[in-house]
Each structure stands twice: as C-alpha cells, then as structure tokens.
Amino acid sequence: MTMASDGLNHQGGIAFIIDASTLEMITNYGQTSGHSFANSLLKSNEAGFYIGMDLGDNYPRGVNLWELKAAEKQKKSKLVYKFKTRHGTNPTSPAGTAYDEYTEISTSEKKFYKWSNDNYCYTELAHPGIHEIGNESIIIFFAGENPPLDNSQTGEVMNAARNVGWVKISRDLSSDTVLSPGEALDA
Which superkingdom (predicted)? Predict the structure, then answer.
C-alpha cells in the first residue's frame, strides 16, 4: 500500500480495522496524519467507537484527534493543538515556487520566506494521552515548547523547555467547542 495516489511511498499514519480471527482488513480509513511521529489508540467509552491521536508534521500539522466507528465505517478527526514551523531561508521552495519574505520573523542577519517543509514537531504526546470524561468531553495530554506558535523560535529538535499541556474538547468532534483555557488555535 502506498500513501500517495501517484504511487510514491510516503510515511504517515493509516487507520484500519482488522478481523481478529482472519487478520483480513475490514475497513481502511486512510491517512490520519502525514509523517505521523507518535500515536495512541483506545477503545472508546462509547460502544463501537475507537479514539486515537497522532502527531503529524503536515496534513494536518499538530496533534490530530480522530475517532473510528467500526459498524458505520466512518472516521472523524479534529486538530486540537498546533505548533510552530520552521520556514524556508531561500525565496524558492524545493518545488520551484517563489515565495514572499516572511518579514514578521526575518532579521537583518537571516531572512525567512513563506514556505515550509519542517519535519520537526516541537511536541511530544503523552501515552496514552487521551482520556474520555463520560460522554461529554475528551482531554488530550502532551508536552510542547512555549510559546507554541512562535515561528522565529525553530531550527533545532528542541528550542525551548517543553511544558506539559492539555486541551479539553467536546466529545462531539464536529463541535468547535474548546472547554479548556488557553491561546486560540488560530493564533
């Protein structure tokens, strides 16, 4: 199985259900996150559901929470935490596209441009790190650098001390409700 439709292999997380007796694949839900660097999977409190999370460097970039419902062959996902990204230092990306300067993080010594191919996540997942609170909410635990969205503080695997973090959201992944305090996801 390949990750990309063009037949090129690409590393990422894939969610699927296998029959325990025959080891045959029942349902392939497809990719969870591109370059999935860590993941957890639990049987949900809600009958017939599994919940999981993974740490993706792209598609989406962040801590991605997802649920699988075996009987209905459906997958829902929600990006619950974003982190910074290192931007290119040349105006032209490896794909040959030219980009504008990212003046907000450029300095007189180093210029950055508005493209990225950063595989560092600056974050680690707790394991299992997913906790359902009844049928109302889910709490996700991780460790991340602070400030999490400062794109000027990148370049190494670790750029600042990592702090324990958590996000509490509605159990309904289609809801935009965040039940914990903190910076907005789009900040």
Answer: Eukaryota
Length of the chain: 187
pLDDT one-digit tens code per residue, 33-61: 888 889 999 999 888 889 999 999 988 99
Query: What residue segments make up the domains of the chain, in order of their start?
Result: 12-170
Give me the numbers of helices (H) and strands (E) for the chain, helices first please.
Answer: 0, 8
Structure token pair of residue 1: 């199985």
Rounded to an integer, what distance in angstroms lies between the CA atom of residue 48 and that of residue 45? 9
Distance CA 26, CA 78 (A): 24
Cα angle 135, 126, 37; round to 5: 110
Q: What angle do CA 67, 58, 66 make, to 5 degrees?
A: 5
Q: What is the distance between the alpha carbons of residues 141 and 130, in angstroms, rounded to a whole number?
A: 7
CA-CA distance, 24 to 31, in Å (whole number)? 19
- What are the DSSP calls for 82-117, one per residue? ----PPBSSSB-TTS-B--B-TTT--SS---BS---
CA pair distance 117, 95, nearest whole angstrom:
10
Q: Please tell me whether the overall predicted TM-score, pTM, comes out greater than 0.90 for this model.
A: no
Secondary structure (3-state) at 11: coil
pLDDT of residue 4: 55
Output the CA torsion 174→57→88→92 (10° steps): -80
